[in-house]
Amino acid sequence: MKIGILTSGGDCAGLNAVMRAIGFYAYKNIKNCEIVGIPDGYGGLIRGESAPMGPEDFEGLLNLGGTVLGTRRTPFKTMTVPEENGETRLEKMRTNYKKMGLDCLFTLGGAGTHRTAALLCAEGCNVIGLPKTIDNDIYGTDVTFGFHTAVDVATEAIDRVRTTAASHGRTILVEVMGNKAGWLTLYAGIAAGAEVILLPEIPFRIDKICEAVRKNYEDGKPCNIIAVGEGAVLESEARFKKKERVFVRTERGETTVTQHLAEVIGEQTGFETRSMALGYIQRGGNPSAYDRVLSSRLGSYAGRLAAQGQFGVTVAVAGQEITFNALPDVAGKYKFVDPSSDIVRQAEDIGVCFGR
Ligand code: F6P
């Protein structure tokens, strides 16, 4: 069996660990197994590039961050657009899949990667997807690999912000990644004891935040930490699409939602306020123990699926079990924080303000 592996979309911790588990499984359990790595996500498949990966190439990958194959964003909408020679990227990939003699392709990626994977399946390629992303926003799986490492990193960073915030009696807004989903902000916010947590799924009101900040100081708290999801929106902006929101904010001369909020909260409360974005440190670095275990389980399970000839699926976590979903059932669908879920209510019950 000839297997191809690619990593696509934004990187995260655990990509290498998943590949290692696939490689270990395949070389141990599949007869006449051959594995090739495809560089730069779907880009490598479009160009028809691959390099052999022997058993030794999977050593040392368990605790290594990033991806040894490299990754790129290759937007789904570009896949079916004819290029110079009239051929689409999808057609090029199908042709190269055949030329490479692949029997199976593992695509490690997020929701966008899965969408393209579903297209490839429809073209007759044997694909197995694996759910990665720090955003944890992939539909059909309880958790994605990379998420918990990012939670740990963001939590530790916010812990550090808290000691300086407390020393100065400041309110500090910390912007957390996650795109349109608030999972990372919610988990890191709760783990770091943030006084205010702002999620894309719960449009916020500035007066509610200022009220909470004032009250916290009155109650003797030395500082306020506000964890802001990068996609957080004001209640008054919630009806707009992302592009419209960005346009209106730019027109008003605002930068990021976090910087804007810091200015307004500082003005309205009179307390010294600062803001910062955690940025790419949330994606970088080595996987946590949790993600090493999860990645090993997902990769091993995916290898078994390939051995059984079960293709056109993505691997998923359901409770304590690893399972799979049919790609067409989940591709392109997202999973968001439910504003009325237990976790949000439990945080609110212990005093966290969500700006509502
Ligand atoms: O990979 C997910 C993510 O980190 C999101 O949280 C963030 O919005 C986006 O990627 C950043 O993308 P880029 O790497 O293209 O700047």
What does it look like?
This protein is an alpha/beta fold and 356 residues long. It has two domains: 2-146 and 287-330, Rossmann fold; 148-283, Phosphofructokinase domain (Rossmann fold, 3-Layer(aba) Sandwich), CATH 3.40.50. It is built from twelve helices and eleven strands. The strands form two sheets. It has a seven-stranded mixed beta sheet, with helices on both faces. A four-stranded parallel beta sheet has the order 7-8-6-9, sandwiched between helices. Strand 7, helix 7 and strand 8 form a beta-alpha-beta unit. Helix 5 (147-168) packs across helix 6 and helix 7 packs across helix 9. It is elongated, with a radius of gyration of 22 Å. The model has no long low-confidence stretch (mean pLDDT 96).
Write the layout of secondary structure elements.
Elements: E1 2-7, H1 15-29, E2 34-37, H2 42-47, E3 51-52, H3 89-99, E4 104-109, H4 111-122, E5 127-131, H5 147-168, E6 171-176, H6 183-191, E7 196-198, H7 206-218, E8 224-229, H8 242-251, H9 257-269, E9 273-277, H10 289-307, E10 313-318, E11 321-326, H11 327-330, H12 342-349
Parallel strand pairs: 1-2, 1-4, 4-5, 5-10, 6-8, 6-9, 7-8
Antiparallel strand pairs: 2-3, 10-11
Helix pairs in contact: 1-10, 5-6, 7-9
6-O-phosphono-beta-D-fructofuranose is lined by residues 10, 73, 133-135, 177-179, 230, 283.
